[in-house]
Amino acid sequence: MLSYKCLMVDVDGVIVRPLPGGWASSMETDLGLSKESLQERFFKPHWDDIFRGRLEIVDALTPILTDVLPQLGVETLLRYWFERDSTLDQTLISELSDLRANGIPLHLCTVQEHRRASYLWETMALKELFDAIHYSADYGSTKPEVDFFQAVCARTGYRPGELMLVDDAQRNVDGARAAGWHALLWNGTQPLAELVSDYSGR
Fold it and tell me: Which of 4, 8, 177, 182 has a CA between 20 and 30 Å from the CA of residue 79?
C-alpha cells in the first residue's frame, strides 16, 4: 500500500488552469505589447536566469519596456500577467483541502520567480490552503533537476520516499522519481483520489 507523509503539488497546469492560448493571448489588444515581442526580448534571453533566481524580473523587464513600449509600466504588465494566470481548479482545491483536513500536509512545488511566487502565496492566499511553498528561484535550481528535489528534502526534513509530487509534466514526474520521490502525472481527467489509488507505488 502506498504510504507518503506530504503531498507536493505543482501550480501551473495543476491547481492553476491556464487560459486558452495562455495569459498573453490578448495582451497586444489589451496593453499594446505583442506576445511575439515579449517572447523574443524577454522570455528567450532572460527567463532561465529569472526562474532560477539569478535575475530579478523587474530588472529584466524595465529596459525592454522602456525601449519597445515606454508608456507601459512594469507593474502594470506584471499585474495583468498574474491576474490572468490565476484561475484555480476549484474541484482539485476541494480534494486537496479534504486531504489536509485528514492530516496530510500540502506543499506547493513549482517553477516560479520571486514576484509571482509571492502573488500566489499572499495575494491569492494559497498560504491558507498549503503549508509551504518550494519554488525554483528560491532554491536556485528547478524541476526536473535532482538537486531541486534533494534541496526540498533537506529543507523539509522529509525522506524522498515520504514525498509525493503531483505534476502535469512527465519530465518533472521522471525527475522526482529519479530523486526517490513518488510522483503522479496530472492531466485533470480523474479525481486525485483515483489517481493516487491507481498509482503503482514505484
Answer: 8
Q: How much is the pLDDT for 202?
A: 47
- Residue 57 within any structural domain of the chain: yes
196, three cell numbers: 493516487
Q: What ranges make up the beta strands (E) of the chain? A: 6-9, 16-17, 87-88, 106-110, 132-135, 163-167, 182-185
Nearest to 152 by CA among 166, 136, 167: 136
**Same domain for 105 and 167?**
yes
CA distance 83 to 76: 11
Residue 3 pLDDT grade (very low, low, confident, very high; cuts 50, 70, 90) = confident
Give the SS3 label for residue 142: coil
Residues 154, 129: one domain?
A: yes
What whole-number percentage of the chain has pLDDT above 70? 98
Sequence length of the chain is 202
**146 and 107 together in one domain:** yes
- Residue 166 is part of which domain span? 6-18+87-198
